[in-house]
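Write out structure tokens for Peptidoglycan DD-metalloendopeptidase family protein.
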Amino acid sequence: MQNWIPKRHAMRKPPAGKFPRRHLALAASTLIALGLTLLLLPGENAEAKRTAIPLDLELTPSRISESVSAPEEPPVAIEQSWKEIPVENGDSLSAIFSRANLTPQDLHELLSSSSKAKELNKIKPGQKLSFKISDNGQLDAMSFQVDKLNSIIFERGVTGFTTTKMTETPEIRQRVASATITSSLYRAAQDAGVSQGIIMELANIFGGVLDFVYDVRKDDFFIVIYEELYLNGELLSSGQILAAQYFNRGKSFEAYRYINKQGEVDYFSEAGESMRKAFLRAPLDFTRISSGFNPKRLHPVFKTVRPHRGVDYAAPRGTPVYAAGDGRVAAAGYSKANGNYVFIKHGEAYMTKYLHLHKRAVSKGDRVRQRETIGWVGSTGYATGPHLHYEFLLNGVHRNPATIVKQLPAPKKVAAGAMPEFKAQIAGMQLQLRTYAAQRNYTGTGAG
């Protein structure tokens, strides 16, 4: 007999998408457990990242921030550098621009930019040019060092190059130097470390009262106070002489630099008398007299007695010859006897003559100032060797140049109304000269 189950008791298939509640709860628990397991168990990539971290790294906020890649910053513009090119012997602007990899067009554009650019045509060895050139080879700027204190800057603008003059201000220091004469002023001053420019200026200041050929004697003594110019601790050059004192044959000569209310600069004695006389005692520096004024001299070339109406100063060829006083050139030329010559008229009464010059620096009609170079020592004409023949005429009559200056008009003086100001201005220099002479124990008859 078949077993049978009534239809109402047969198993029913659940409708699609529906499960008993307990089945759903079981499935949900299983999925949650599986998810947690996957989260807690590290994968391969996670393990790789973990092992890449150093063991001693402290994960402080600052260190963590370092490990994060920062956004890229825009590139910083690199400032152009200057290329310096010194001026060498025989250099030209075109050669220097070529060494700077610039074209003739660059040079033309710069030279035509302003009148200041014309100064570039005067470049000398030892000066410097500096260039700022862009990446595409264009000249953006140039600096021309005129000297250690002055430069001219050319910068490219919208319409061409602009020009700026730059001037450094040097530090001014005072220096005191002194020396005892053993052979010549030049050698003594050189041994004391005095520059050639100061030596020449010292001779110029005392040139109206001392003849450094005739008057200088062994054991003469001098003191000079002058300026020196420094830039960044480096000595650039000597400046002005502020005061000087020269002891000669027991006499003392003092000179002080004085600036009056009109801004005029000159040197005066402590009594206010100008050191600049009408005529120099000698028209050149540091020589010896080879032949003096002598109406009965035996001529060295013709070996006959002929008057020597001047003074012969033996000096190396090329030594500068100065105008003995202010005046106008009355004659300048060449003759068989005189060689190259210059005659200067000083007012109506005086004339000076300069013979046997190597070259002349002036022409007839030129105005000249005292101590202006009018030529150079030579041996042209009837001359046995390089020397200057110098003559001095008063009202057409030859006079001895070594003695006539003592008979000339007195030099100018500081005005009476300006004497208090003059005294006040030189007081400090007077004290320095006195103090220094006392320290050297100099009495005026010899150096201590």
